[in-house]
Structure formats: C-alpha cells, structure tokens
Specification:
Aspartate Aminotransferase, domain 2, 18 strands, alpha/beta, Aspartate Aminotransferase, domain 1, 2 domains, four-stranded mixed sheet, binds pyridoxal-5'-phosphate
Length: about 425
C-alpha cells in the first residue's frame, strides 16, 4: 500500500525544491521518505499515515516544554485574537526583553529578530561596526545559520582564510572568515598572535549541536574569553541552540563565562519565529536607531510569536524544570548506551540538560574530525530501525537530539526498548 508520506513527498517535489523548506528534512543523509507531520502533542507527533512517533528533534530545539503545551497554545490564541502584527512597538516585546536580560547572565540589552540566521548575521555586523575591523573567526563544525560570511569551511593552511561551503557565496565574501578547529586552544592562540588586532569577533557554539553534540572544553572557552578581552575582539556565543537547553542561563551560565554578545533563537520563540541578539549595553548602543549599525525587520518582535516565547520562558522557570529535563535526558542516553553494549555495538552518548548526542564511536568526540570519523552507516541503519519502531531521531548522524519536559519515564523506557531491537539488527 502506498504511504501518504510517499504521495505527499512526490507532490511536494513538484513545487518545492527537493520537496522541503529546509534541507535536512529531506532525509538525504539517511535515505528514504520524509515523514509529513500532521499534528503533535507532548513528546509525540503523527505522520500522514497517522503513525505516532516519539519525537527527539522537538522542531530542532524549540519544543522544550513538549508539543502544543496548553499554556503556550492559549497564549498564542489570546495574542492572535488581539491582532497578528502591528509594525509598532508592544508591551509584550518589553516583557520578553526583560525576561531574557534577567535570565542570560551577559545580556544587558537585546534586539528581537525572527530567525537564528538573522541573529548571528546581525551580531557579526554589530561586532564589525563596533570594532571597525573586518576579520571574523569561526570553528569547523559550528553552524551559525546561512549568512554568506558564515558558510565557510577551513582553507588549505592552518591560518589561511576559508572557502565557501555553498554555491552562490563569492570568495570575496568569505575572505575575512578564518575557520579554526573546535577545542583547539593552541590554534586560537596562534591566530590571535598573528592577527589579533584585526579580528572583529570570534563566534562559537559554546556547546556545539550542529556536528552532533560536542562540548567545548572549559579551557577552550576561557582562552577565547581572555584573548578577546586582550585584543578588543567581540566574543559572540551562538546560543541559538544551546541557550535555555543546556541550562536556564544557557552555556554561559554552565561554564561561568560571559560573552560580549549572545545570539538566541529556538526556545525563546516556543515554536514560533523569535530569535534575538543581545549583550553589553555599550555594544548594543551601536545599533540603529541609536548608532550607525543598521538592522531591521517587518515581523521582528511579532506579538503572536512573542506570546509563545514568553509563555515558554515562564514554563521553563517552574521549580525542578531543568533537574527533571537533565535527569530524563541522562536516563535516555544511559539506557541507549546500555542497550548497545548488550548488543555488542560500538556506541556512546553524551547529554547536557535537554540536549544529547549519539555516536557510533568508542569515545565521545571533541572535534569535528572526531565526529566525522564515527560510523555513519551504522547510524543510518539505526535511524531507520528506530523510525520503524516509532521513534523519530534527527535524520542525520551529525545533529544533536532534544528531549522535552513531556518525555516521562514511560516514554524513555519505550525508546530504550525500541533501541534494543534496533541495536540487535546492527550486531
Ligand atoms: C547554533 C545555531 N545558530 C544559528 C542557527 C540558525 O537558526 P535559524 O534556523 O533559526 O535561522 C541554528 C539553526 O539550527 C543553530 O543551531
């Protein structure tokens, strides 16, 4: 019998490139037909054949309180009834800005935008505008959205500038982007020694979630902070993914390191398009209309999206929220590791707060190269076996996973049971 997912995928491809509106959704990495989702509730979503899955992508991060949480849905409905968009300021924008400044240790002022890409792109512009410098440093394996100067991979030499990773990005646009190895403190020291006074900013995912899950070592981030301060370089933490995921105050709270600017997204929109960049008030003062760095958005601070974000930010401050989230994520990763061991499959996992990484490798990777050396074929087979068993993992070996507050013991146990069967198929 033909699946409705197959029918929808064939139809989607007629009018949408590759049938999807964001590439990873197309299942290219794992093969097969993407599931078309019709509804979601709590830890589950359902596809076009009405098959239920335990969802471990959570819309790639935002769904931290679970799907369609009644409080969030009610806030959205109430806001929508008052009007969808005004193009003029609202009290809701002040309230969410106050909440973000309260929760994120380094943020004194914040500007709302509609996507993580916009947040990091604007943060870069701010750093360049404030320092009057052009060069930026990023790290291999970190993803910061799809702005031109960030779609770059390392050049041929250690301290040579990068090459575009996408067609359509002129070499000229990336000639100021230096790409270094994640967690390589020495390389960072060398780069600053060589050209520190020309570097506008360093941008980093302090917990990387776009090359599977890779934690920064404290030494790496501390060195980065020290060098940026010494050379007058702006330190940007891209916490679009890890912010409000690894801890209430984000990775900066976990590591006790204050960046100058932070990019946020995902959780602060609670499933609707809200992202932000914020930081030191003196730096944010360079933004228009106060200063010369231009940035704007028709739907920035949209009242319905802000209502979803604000109600989510309230829910994650309920007592025990992160203790529970962290415990459930650890239970999941420990259970999967145990199941793999019983089946004799080389596998390990890592978890921080509500984010996790699964690696078909003997040890938890600390760099892009180590992640790339893990066994992708085994992951792909595991992914499909889990999907068949009703568990939806990220459709790529190089993405992190997400647990929500609705993934209770029964849901975790069902996942581990499914994994026992999946690992047995791999052995
Ligand atoms: C760390 C990080 N930065 C930026 C982005 C871009 O955000 P968006 O997809 O909302 O543009 C992402 C998206 O996954 C991300 O994970």
């Amino acid at each position: 019998m033909t699946s409705n997912n197959d029918t929808l995928f064939a139809r989607a491809q007629l009018t949408t490139p590759g049938g999807v509106n964001s590439p990873v959704r197309a299942f290219r990495s794992v093969g097969g037909t993407p599931r078309f989702i019709t509804r979601a509730e709590g830890p589950y979503f359902w596809d076009a054949d009405d098959r239920r899955y335990i969802d471990y992508i959570g819309s790639w991060g935002p769904a931290i309180v679970g799907h369609a949480h009644p409080t969030v849905v009610k806030a959205v409905q109430d806001a929508a009834a008052r009007g969808l968009s005004f193009g003029a300021p609202t009290q809701g924008e002040i309230e969410i800005a106050e909440e973000i400044c309260k929760l994120v240790p380094s943020i004194e002022q914040v500007r709302l935008v509609s996507s993580g890409t916009e947040a990091t792109m604007s943060a870069l512009r701010l750093a360049r505008g404030a320092t009057g410098r052009d060069k930026i440093v990023k790290f291999e394996g970190c993803y910061h959205g799809h702005a031109d100067s960030l779609l770059v991979k390392a050049g041929s030499g250690l301290l040579t500038f990068g090459n575009p990773t996408s067609a359509g990005v002129p070499e000229d646009f990336v000639k100021h982007t230096l790409v270094l190895d994640y967690n390589n403190t020495q390389q960072l020291e060398d780069a600053f020694k060589d050209m520190g006074d020309q570097i506008a900013c360093v941008i980093v995912e302090p917990v990387a979630g776009n090359m599977n899950l890779v934690r920064a070592t404290p030494e790496f981030l501390q060195t980065m902070r020290r060098l940026c301060t010494q050379y007058g370089t702006v330190l940007i933490f891209d916490e679009v993914m890890c912010g409000f995921r690894v801890a209430l105050g984000g990775a900066q709270a976990l590591y006790g390191i204050k960046p100058d600017i932070t990019a946020l997204g995902k959780v602060i929109g609670g499933g609707l398009p809200v992202a932000a960049f914020g930081g030191r008030a003196d730096l944010m003062g360079h933004m228009a209309p106060l200063g010369p760095v231009y940035q704007a958005g028709t739907l920035s601070g949209n009242p319905v999206a802000v209502a979803a974000g604000m109600s989510t930010l309230k829910l994650i401050q309920e007592p025990g929220f992160y203790t529970n989230l962290t415990a459930q994520t650890s239970k999941l990763v420990n259970g999967l590791s145990q199941a793999a061991k019983e089946a004799g499959v080389t596998f390990c996992g890592d978890a921080i707060g509500g984010m996790f990484g699964l690696y078909f490798a003997a040890t938890v990777p600390g760099s892009y190269a180590a992640v790339m050396a893990s066994n992708k074929d085994l992951f792909n087979r595991f992914f499909h076996a889990m999907l068949d068993a009703g568990v939806y993992l990220a459709p790529s070996a190089f993405e992190a996973g997400f647990v929500s507050a609705q993934h209770d013991d029964a849901v975790i146990a069902a996942t581990i049971e499914a994994a026992r069967g999946a690992f047995a198929q791999l052995a």
